[in-house]
């Protein structure tokens, strides 16, 4: 039986394409501090890649006396304000690989736990047509680390999970891709990804090509 060919690349956003994690951490620290609490770096690291509803509940436990929805909106607004002021740092190699995928006929999908309105802002920083699909965290029944976001992206693109590759930087996102049965490339940024089942770990996306993605996909599906 012939293995399926690679059709699409499913990208995480925060920490994988753009280095927004410090912006989220700063917003969390300021919010907890406004209620008289403290929020350190280690606590912030535990929220990397989590669904925003889960993060909101943890922040409530840290003393933030707001509803989950209000916390999510506050944090999203704070990060979007920073993005609007030009505080955007792209991760090494991400823009280049996105463009190379398009040129090679591979579809790119953005699959993030950030809400859709923020995902569209980031997508708008890239050339028109970079993404064939955007899936926000407010559009899926269950967040990462559940497989739902990546399975939904594959279904919407009209492909089987075996025809895709996931690129992730967080433990929750890596677990999500693995649980979805998709070849998963871990590119650690702020937290380690060893032992989570990723097909391969790359230190960076710099100088990576569509052929590299196809090699990982072939290794996973053969």
Question: Briefly, what is this?
Answer:
The protein has 222 residues and is an alpha/beta fold.
By DSSP, the count of extended strands is 6
What is the radius of gyration? 17 Å
**Structural shape:** globular
Q: How many domains, as an integer?
A: 2
Number of helices: 9
End-to-end separation in angstroms reads 10 Å
Task: Describe, in plain words, how this protein is organized in 3D.
The protein is of the alpha/beta class and 222 residues long. The chain folds into two domains: 8-19 and 89-221, 3-Layer(aba) Sandwich (Rossmann fold); 21-84, Putative phosphatase, domain 2 (DNA polymerase, domain 1), CATH 1.10.150. It has nine helices and six strands; from the N terminus they run E-H-H-H-H-H-E-H-E-H-E-H-E-E-H. The chain has helices at residues 21-34, 41-45, 52-61, 68-84, 94-103, 116-123, 148-157, 171-179, 210-221; strands at 8-11, 107-111, 133-135, 164-168, 183-186, 200-201. A six-stranded parallel β-sheet has the order 3-2-1-4-5-6, sandwiched between helices. Helix 1 (21-34) crosses helix 4 and helix 3 (52-61) crosses helix 4. The chain is globular, with a radius of gyration of 17 Å. The mean pLDDT is 94.
Structural key phrases:
222 residues; Rossmann fold; six-stranded parallel beta sheet; 2 domains; DNA polymerase, domain 1
């Amino acid at each position: 039986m012939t293995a399926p060919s690679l059709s699409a690349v499913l990208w995480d956003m925060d920490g994988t394409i753009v280095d927004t994690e410090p912006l989220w951490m700063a917003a969390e620290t300021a919010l907890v501090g406004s209620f008289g609490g403290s929020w350190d770096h280690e606590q912030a690291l535990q929220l990397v890649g989590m669904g925003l509803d889960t993060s909101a509940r943890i922040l409530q436990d840290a003393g933030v006396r707001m509803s989950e929805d209000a916390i999510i909106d506050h944090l999203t607004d704070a990060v979007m304000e920073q993005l609007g002021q030009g505080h955007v740092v792209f991760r090494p190699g991400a823009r280049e690989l996105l463009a190379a995928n398009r040129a090679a006929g591979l579809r790119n999908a953005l699959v993030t736990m950030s809400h859709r309105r923020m995902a569209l802002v980031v997508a708008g920083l890239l050339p028109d047509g970079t993404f064939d699909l955007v899936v926000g965290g407010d559009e899926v029944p269950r967040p990462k680390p559940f497989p739902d976001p990546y399975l939904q992206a594959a279904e919407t693109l009209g492909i089987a999970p075996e025809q895709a590759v996931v690129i992730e930087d967080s433990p929750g996102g890596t677990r999500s891709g693995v649980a979805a049965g998709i070849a998963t490339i871990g590119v650690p940024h702020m937290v380690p990804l060893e032992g989570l089942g990723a097909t391969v770990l790359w230190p960076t996306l710099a100088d990576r090509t569509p052929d590299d993605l196809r090699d990982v996909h072939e290794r996973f599906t053969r």
